[in-house]
Predict the structure.
Amino acid sequence: MLSTLRVMGGGEMVSEEVTVLNLLGLHARPIAKLVKTLSGSGDSVSLWKGDHSADAKDIYQIMMLDAKCGDQLKVCVDGPDESKTLETVVELFRAKFNET
């Protein structure tokens, strides 16, 4: 479910909950695909697992989340193309990062 959050300074960001569907969780291959997809984006994207967050453009930070199959993550996006970027990230999760 898409939600809009107010951030410090009065701006807003969009967020949505996703479920890790890959049987092996978020391992190197899907993480690399996510980072590569976001590399040209001017938006700030973070992944949250409980109280822990990761910059979604940083492979090592995402690995530290240790996201397993079935885990719920919150994707937060702030920037000029935030809605499109959020949609792209959510679709990657839904498509299991195109892994079989």
User: Anything to note?
Assistant: The mean pLDDT is 92. The beta strands are 3-6, 12-19, 44-49, 52-55, 72-78. The longest helix spans residues 82-94.
